[in-house]
């Protein structure tokens, strides 16, 4: 029965994603430290899966820059320097500014109203202090901006960069008061887009990601001090 359940988990297509998120969060929050080994057998036992999805999860973590692996050697947690993290956020800020600016110009009426409605609904998550749910909403919110730009190449670039930064962006919501501040920053972006204010939307999105970068850097510093 146990073997059957493992196959069902793998076939559902969620195991690798869950492992990537769990391991990435442990790395970013300091539960795992640079140099720690990530043994396939131990991870397979921990997540109750075969080694095949573990290898895929490690491959994705390597692509994110959180894990390093040399041929015929165990994967290890890498050290993401504050300088490199800042450089990724700097690129992200520019890309999101482009998306917000183009969204203000190109979003359809339906897309604008859907963005606004989703944003307003997220206030309930802020009031409840629902960090995980708000993090999921945050991903959806920004995806709407990327798609609203109606530029396939920019969409590919921004989603690839976001994937690298995902664990750090989630970490920010652990900071006191960050949910409410994030909502306020989103509100400025939404207001500009609803007004078709391309310049204002771009500036608001750039500022928002810059603030996220500062919040994530603070979190990383706290982690390092621990």
What low-confidence regions span 5 or more consecutive residues with pLDDT below 50?
Answer: 1-14, 221-226
Order of helices and strands: HHEHHEEHHHHHHH
Oligomeric assembly: single chain
What Rg, in angstroms, do the CA atoms define?
19 Å
Care to count the β-strands? 3
How much strand content do the residues show? under 5%
Key descriptive features of the protein:
mainly alpha; 3 strands; Arc Repressor Mutant, subunit A; 3% strand; Four Helix Bundle (Hemerythrin (Met), subunit A); disordered N terminus; 226 residues; 2 domains
Q: Could you characterize the architecture of this molecule?
A:
- The protein has 226 residues and is mostly helical.
- It folds into 2 domains: 2-77, Winged helix-like DNA-binding domain superfamily/Winged helix DNA-binding domain (Arc Repressor Mutant, subunit A); 82-225, Up-down Bundle (Four Helix Bundle (Hemerythrin (Met), subunit A)).
- Helix content is 77%, strand content 3%.
- It has helices at residues 2-12, 15-28, 40-47, 51-63, 82-106, 109-121, 123-128, 131-148, 152-171, 178-194, 198-225; strands spanning 37-38, 67-68, 75-77.
- A hairpin with a 6-residue loop joins β2 and β3 (75-77).
- α2 crosses α9 (152-171), α3 (40-47) crosses α4 (51-63) and α6 packs antiparallel against α8 (131-148).
- The radius of gyration is 19 Å and the shape is elongated.
- The N and C termini lie far apart (42 Å).
Can you lay out the helices and strands and say which pair or pack?
Layout: H1 2-12, H2 15-28, E1 37-38, H3 40-47, H4 51-63, E2 67-68, E3 75-77, H5 82-106, H6 109-121, H7 123-128, H8 131-148, H9 152-171, H10 178-194, H11 198-225
Helix pairs in contact: 2-4, 2-9, 3-4, 5-8, 5-9, 5-10, 5-11, 6-8, 6-10, 8-9, 10-11
């Amino acid at each position: 029965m146990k073997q059957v359940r493992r196959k069902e988990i793998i076939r559902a297509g969620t195991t690798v994603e869950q492992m990537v998120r769990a391991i990435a969060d442990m790395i970013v929050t300091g539960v795992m430290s640079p140099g720690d080994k990530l043994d396939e057998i131990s991870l397979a036992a921990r997540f109750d899966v075969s080694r095949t999805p573990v290898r895929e999860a490690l491959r994705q973590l390597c692509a994110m820059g959180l894990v390093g692996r040399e041929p015929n050697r165990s994967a290890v947690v890498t050290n993401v320097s504050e300088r490199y993290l800042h450089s990724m956020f700097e690129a992200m800020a520019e890309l999101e500014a482009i998306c917000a600016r183009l969204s203000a110009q190109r979003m359809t009426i339906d897309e604008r109203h859907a963005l606004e409605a989703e944003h307003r609904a997220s206030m309930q998550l802020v009031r409840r202090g629902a960090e995980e749910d708000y993090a999921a909403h945050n991903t959806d919110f920004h995806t709407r901006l990327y798609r609203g730009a109606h530029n396939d190449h920019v969409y590919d670039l921004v989603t690839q960069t976001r994937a690298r930064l995902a664990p750090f962006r989630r970490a920010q919501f652990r900071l006191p008061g960050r949910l409410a501040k994030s909502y306020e920053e989103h509100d400025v972006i939404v207001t500009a887009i609803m007004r078709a204010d391309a310049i204002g939307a771009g500036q608001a999105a750039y500022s928002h990601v810059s603030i996220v970068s500062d919040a994530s850097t603070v979190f990383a510093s706290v982690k390092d001090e621990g």
